[in-house]
TrEMBL record, chains A, B:
It comes from Streptomyces glycanivorans. Keywords: Aminotransferase, Iron, Iron-sulfur, Metal-binding, Pyridoxal phosphate, Transferase. Pfam families: Aminotran_5, TusA. It comes from the Bacteria. Residues 391-415 form the UPF0033 domain. Gene3D superfamilies: Aspartate Aminotransferase, domain 1, TusA-like domain, Type I PLP-dependent aspartate aminotransferase-like (Major domain). Transmembrane segments: none annotated. InterPro entries: Aminotrans_V_dom, Cysteine_dSase, PyrdxlP-dep_Trfase, PyrdxlP-dep_Trfase_major, PyrdxlP-dep_Trfase_small, TusA-like, TusA-like_sf. This is Aminotransferase class V-fold PLP-dependent enzyme. PANTHER family: CYSTEINE DESULFURASE, CYSTEINE DESULFURYLASE FAMILY MEMBER. Belongs to the class-V pyridoxal-phosphate-dependent aminotransferase family. NifS/IscS subfamily. Its cofactor is pyridoxal 5'-phosphate.
């Protein structure tokens, strides 16, 4: 039963399991204590710190272990902002950062600070010079992920770090998705990562703060981990995290080549096998193991359920699968289709047979869901075209508004318009995205009595 | 090699190890995901929450898992203060709380709030009515540990909770040291605990917040664990924590009786075997497995080293063993001797032979350290008594100032005084404590050119 959601959490690497078991007996005591059990725990912690620092490319005394990647990001942002509060309270981040960064920015704003979101292009990458232009005299910190967690696009971290360094602004790199594949290049100042993304255990994050970066931990004082990560150290898990990072790095080059080929296979095949599909993200500058595509006229949640029934575990950035019913902010920032969204992220060791099995079932699953939702098979011309049509999709969720639009577009003449009434947030993204895919004209959005009216002009 | 520091961290319970191993394969995925690996992880998390809630005595939806006991306390204090900020920004706590509570109070003060420390008596317990008198109209939260981590004294939690409930002030109980022994009684509002204290793995804390208690999580938003504990859930460790809590509870009654008898044995024997020793804490209302005593004329760090060499791992609240050189705030608040302090906390399964072995080596170790430091064997009268004497112990650390005092007290006549000049912080506590033990009069402290002058009058 293939698991294709490594970007959420990777299964425990055999080396992590082995190291965890070995250190359960040696690493349970308080490393701050003077007796032998404490000294043994401290030795394990020191060795893990050295191994992790080497993999990150920093000094051991620049690295602390946190209880998660999210905590590493929260501490990094709050500590760096606090350390540079005399400079100002402005934060710069890309529009496609992980929620832990976005929520840190929101917390800053709630306490009176400000932030600037740097937009991304259609592949999901920021432009370094545009990023640089958002740096201000009062910018205390800049944040940029090494690679995007939803679409896999690599960000120009080294170039951006250079620009930030020249401007005297520390750059925090969220390396959660990429650290297992290799160190982050360039003159970054802070780095955060999460062990369970590379096959380490849950409960371990990394926070690196380069010497010379002003950093003032927030919250109640705690003497552990240089005051940067409160709470008793989870040494067995830390040892397992460091050992597995070293192990995945040793395999990374070969495995990246292998998985990149499998992902290329998916990227190429999906468009041929499934009609009305958009593969998103940068085809080249990307994580080796991750691909995301969106299927018109399908809702993500049903698709996930059907793929799960067929034995494939994948995730989705569609609004229908999120507790908040808000479509993925990443896909939104990229301006691509959010409906029927599927992210495939292959764990190490995924075979070609597993990928081919997935490609074998996908077309049938998508077709079945589309049929169930009454999606259009082809836009047959209506015998009595009307110059304009209004489709009432109020109260109906993604992907129904787009399905209804697609069904009637053939009923107006070329040059005529279809107006879709919808109160679903996803429609605002998906109707323009459908127009771009279908080469129809998106005229715009108007306020309506309920929800919005989206106007589309038929061009073909 | 007996390990007698269970109050710092207990070795992993066999049930914890077993549960951890079993759930490494089942609990690594994201419990928020819809596919089978996610559903399996969510089931494990739900079952662990139910088991832990039953042991705590709360509803499952009142309990979240944090990454440590420290984090549970930090979140409890900040969330409760924030939830009741309209009431005021005043916090009440006992003077002998764990550092995580004290540091939370300091963080409150740094941000403009205030707190009141309720003093404790010589056994380390608060008086519930005195505690009640410190509650004010603007008190947002009260904190009281279930039992003290350094001396084992149980606090009157149920009575204090009653008083707080009547006053409409929520009471947070830090149950880190006692939860393995049984649920916390009474009408408490919030409770924090730490799994590695009961033999669970590191990396898991519990935070219970009773329904109806106003609580507003602080820091960047995160949807996991009801928004009260940011970061990816460490499900294998959570499962192990819950399973081991249930297991230690099943053994708790019988083990408490057994360990209580061993501790009584230590309490009785230490005074007979070692001269000039003070056993501290309540002899009856106490944790079953913990006893603390202080030895005059010995420094804690040397004592720990020698006991470690002899095969016994214990801890100390003496200033000499702390990185900050500040004597234990607990012993200080109790007004007892801080020098030569030893805490013995027996893990489950400790045998009478191990305890007797410890009692066998202790007198020799203490005598040897005293001899090395030149401690007085007996206060022999000087042939030419002088009415008063000044001892210059400037620049010398605990226990030297007390040793020098004890050496010369016999050289002044009854009614005469000895003045000790010292710049060691511990002297302020230990010279009065020595006077109480030796039945000499502590006259008081005067400012001196360097440090302080401590005046003692010979009575015997």
């Amino acid at each position: 039963m293939p698991y294709f959601d490594a970007a959420s959490s990777a299964p425990l690497h055999p080396v992590a399991r082995q190291a965890l078991l070995a250190s359960l007996d040696e690493g349970w005591a308080d490393p701050a204590r003077l007796y032998r059990e404490g000294r043994r725990a401290a030795l394990l912690l020191d060795a893990a710190r050295e191994a992790a620092a080497e993999a990150v490319g920093c000094r051991p005394d620049e690295l602390v272990f946190t209880s998660s990647g999210t905590r590493a990001v929260h501490s990094a942002v709050s500590g760096a902002l606090s350390g540079r509060r005399r400079v100002g309270r402005h934060l710069v981040l890309s529009a496609v950062e992980h929620s832990s960064v976005l929520h840190s920015a929101a917390a800053l704003e709630a306490s009176g600070g400000t932030f600037t979101e740097v937009p991304v292009g259609r592949t999901g990458a920021v432009d370094p010079s545009a990023y640089g232009q958002s740096l201000r005299a009062d910018t205390a910190l800049a944040c940029l992920q090494s690679a995007n967690h939803e679409v896999g696009t690599e960000q120009p971290v080294a170039e951006t770090a250079e620009i930030c360094a020249d401007a005297g602004v520390p750059l925090l790199v969220d390396a959660a998705q990429s650290l297992g594949w290799g160190p982050v290049p360039g003159r970054w100042s802070l780095l955060a990562a999460s062990a369970h993304k590379w096959g380490g255990p849950a409960g371990v994050g990394l926070l690196a703060v380069r010497k010379g970066v002003r950093f003032a931990p927030r919250g109640p004082a705690d003497e552990r981990e240089s005051g940067r990560a409160a709470g008793f150290e989870n040494i067995p898990a830390i040892v397992a995290a460091a050992a597995s990072l070293r192990a995945v790095r040793a395999e990374a080059t070969a495995e990246a080549v292998r998985l990149r080929a499998l992902v290329d296979r998916i990227r190429a095949a999906v468009g041929n096998l499934v009609p009305d599909v958009e593969v998103v993200g940068d085809p080249e500058r990307r994580l080796p193991h991750l691909v995301t595509f969106s299927c018109l006229y399908v809702d993500g949640e049903t698709l996930l359920h059907e793929l799960d029934r067929a034995g494939y575990s994948v995730s989705s950035g569609s609004s229908c699968t999120s507790s908040t019913l808000t479509p993925s902010h990443v896909l939104k920032a990229m301006g691509v289709l959010t409906e029927g969204n599927i992210r495939v992220s292959l764990p190490s060791g995924t075979t070609r047979e597993e990928v081919d099995g997935f490609l074998g079932v996908l077309p049938g699953v998508v077709a079945e869901v589309r049929q169930r939702l009454g999606a259009p098979v082809s836009a047959a011309a209506s015998p009595t075209p009307r110059a304009s049509l209004v489709v009432d999709a109020l109260g109906r969720r993604c992907p129904i508004p787009v399905i209804e639009l697609a069904k009637v577009i053939g009923e107006v003449p070329v040059g005529g318009t279809v107006t879709v009434l919808s109160d679903d947030e996803a429609a605002r993204l998906d109707i323009p995205a459908w127009c771009a895919m279908r080469e129809q004209e998106y005229v715009g959005e108007e306020e309506a009595e309920h929800g919005s009216a989206y106007v589309v002009r038929r061009l073909l």
